[in-house]
Amino acid sequence: MADRVVTAFAPATVSNVACGFDVLGFALEAPGDEVSARFVEGGREPFSSEASPKRAPVPLPLVRIDDITGDDGRLPREAARNTAGVAAQALLTSLGERRGVALSICKGLPLSSGLGGSAASAAAAVVAVDALLDAHAPVETLITCALEGERLGAGSAHADNIAPALCGGFVLVRRASPPDIIRLPVPAGLTAVVVHPDLEIETSRARAMLGDTVPLADAIRQWANLGALVHGLHRADFALIARALEDTIAEPRRASLVPGLSAIKRAAVEAGALGCSLSGSGPSLFALCRDAHTAATVAAAMTTAVRAEVGGDPQTYISSIAPQGARIVSPCAS
Ligand code: HSE
After folding, report:
1. In this structure, is residue 238 part of a structural domain?
2. What percent of the chain is predicted at pLDDT more than 90?
3. For residue 1, is pLDDT > 80?
């Protein structure tokens, strides 16, 4: 049993989706993060020796991190400072488990990209540990535990990346805790384009730009758009979806984070996108398109605009809304 290794993949996610700050998100097919879990001899003694000599966090009693690839050595190796480590420990605690677990993380998502990287690692960790234990925990438990990783990574336990990373599809978070997640229908053909400019934005910094209050007129417009988007998804009404893809709350306050944001959005819509907005807290931008053919045109236009406005080497993804979220896979090669 000690040699058994279970690996889970969790996909990139687009959160907010323009009018659904902290409450809407959808999953992409790829890229994503992978987390492998295996049993190890547990207890505080062997794990506490891993703590960094400076400002050592309180070690997690049952989780350690063996290895992280794909992050250029930038993510914390101490489990107590790592989103996957904290999420895994939350699940072990909630299940009353006493065995120790070691994690290996293969980062497929760029850091601080707005693609839900911390959520993907946390989601993959809870799915891998759940399978290792044969626990079959309810998805609400997995969401609650993965949210602890998100709280560490983003400074806030919002579920608009965690829920689609675990459940797949296009979801509405009616409430994060305890989770009340509503799966929305996805019209045939709906295709996402995501362009990641060569920039990094910490979610905690982007959230600090929002302040605590919004003008009532902006809130009214936002919830009208949110209702319209949900209705448009149910009716497969692309014209209504297009009208609803507007953010009056978060994006205006974060616009300075992405040079040329309005020009990039304009390029997407002129190329045929239904709408375009920041993916999560940015810097990535997403566009929704009525079909894959349009998405290819939009992806080219957005990539050109991002190169012109931001410079650097953007990464571009075209994906359907992935129906499946985090799942058990064979481990990645790296
Ligand atoms: N809803 C979150 C935000 C997503 O916009 O801050 C980023 O994690």
Report:
1. yes
2. 90
3. no
Statement to judge: residues 30 and 140 lie in one domain? yes
Claim to verify: residue 210 and residue 93 sit in the same structural domain:
no
In this structure, are residues 57 and 81 in contact, taking their beta carbons and an 8 Å threshold? Answer: yes
* 69 phi/psi in degrees, rounded to 5: -120, 155
In a domain, residue 328? The reply is: no
Q: Looking at the structure, do residues 217 and 166 belong to the same domain, yes or no?
A: no
**Could you tell me if 180 and 200 lie in one domain?**
no
Q: Contact, 59 vs 78, CB < 8 A? A: yes
Ligand 1 centre distance from Cα of residue 20 (Å)? 10
The dihedrals phi and psi of 129, each to the nearest 5 degrees, come to: -70, -40
Taking CA atoms only, the protein residue closest to ligand 1 atom 4 is 280
Mean pLDDT of the chain: 94
pTM attached to this predicted model: 0.94
Ligand 1 binding pocket includes 15 (Cβ within 6 Å): yes
Task: Report the number of distinct structural domains present in the chain.
Answer: 2
Residue type, 125: A
212 with 115, same domain: the answer is no
Quick: pLDDT tens for 4-50: 999 999 999 999 999 999 999 999 999 999 999 999 985 443 444 34
**51 within a domain of the structure (yes/no):** no
Closest CA to 95 of 33, 31, 148, 138: 138
327 domain residue, yes or no = no
Q: Which atom of ligand 1 lies closest to the CA of 150?
A: 8
What CATH number is given to the structural domain containing 101? 3.30.230.10
Site to probe by mutation for ligand 1, drawn from 17, 111, 158, 209 as the one with most ligand atoms within 8 Å of Cβ, is 158
pLDDT, average across residues 293-319: 98
Rounded CA-CA distance 192/299 in Å is 9
